[in-house]
Structures are given as structure tokens and as C-alpha cells.
Fold this protein.
Amino acid sequence: MKGTLLFAVLLAGCEAGSDALVDGGPPGPRDGGGLPDDGGADDGQGAGRDEIAINKGGTRIKMRIGTTPDGARAFLGWHDAMRGDDCAFGLAADGQLRCLPTVTAYVDDLFADNGCTQLLASANKLGCPSQPAVKYAGTYVQCATGGTRVKVYPVTGEHTGRVFTGSPGNCSETTPIRLMIYRIGAEVPATAFQPVAERLE
């Protein structure tokens, strides 16, 4: 089984030069690659850039903007208004750059049956009063070129039964430690997520 849950995963694209971010972490990294390094501050001499101005929301993919009582504004990431999900740019299972939903559980080698055919998802147990709701799980497909694409599955509920690991020919019961286990539905087609066209400027 893969290591501890990562809340921000950098996906190296199957095509040269394509980097994709799937992010379930705090607002800083959730930029989909669009933020300037200077943080958007303007020194009055043109050295700064307005990080909100260089990004633009569309009819479906909207910008998430944070504001403070004293008037500060910051770009926090993207939101798919049609699906109702926060999203970040990443390579989908079909190889297309898309705005993929936040993934906070991962599909690896845990199963609900003793034949190791019914996949489960897992997420780290957090030290919070209650575990945040998990809507999506992901698994990562390694391309022949060494890049990675993400498959997205809907989480349908918490799994409280027995858990197995292995393969159909070599399946055994296991006891997950410090993990939340979830049932998942059929893979969400990559075409359900908004495509992104990339260009250089």
C-alpha cells in the first residue's frame, strides 16, 4: 500500500513539459500553476504583479478569491461551478489537462472482499474532532514514459467491514492502522471534468 496520504500531489505529465497539480491542502499551493512568484505585491515601480488580474474565471471554472477586512485580496484556487467542486489543473486519465476535483482519499491495494476484486479507498485519520467529509478518491496511472495521470472515483460512504489486500490469486485479510476506509463507485469519466488548453506566453 502506498505511503501516508499526501494532500498535495504533483503529477508529472505524460507529455513533455506538462506538470499537473491535484491538491487537497491549504490555500497556498492551490494555484494550478498560475500564480506569480512575487505574491502579487506592487512596489509602485512595476515590480509587482496583480495575481488576481493575471487569472480569469470563466462561465464554469470560477476563481476562488479570499478577502480580509482591511481590503487585501488573494487568489485561492479554482471552483467548478457546474459540478460544485473545488478543482486544480491536472492530467486526467485520458491524458487531457483538466480541472480535476480535490482528491483526499486514495485507491491502492485494499479490497472489501476475500477475492480482492472490490476496491476500497483509504485516507489518513486526522487529529481533528471529526474527520472531514471525503467526496472523491483517486488513483494514479503510470505512463510508459514515466509520467502520471489521475483517475477519479466518487466516495459512496465509510467502509466498516473486513478489509483485504493482495491480488485475486493471493488475497489475505489485513487490519489497516490509522486509516479511514471508504467504499467507492465507478470511475468518473475524464470527460466529466472541464478541459484546459495550455499555451506559452
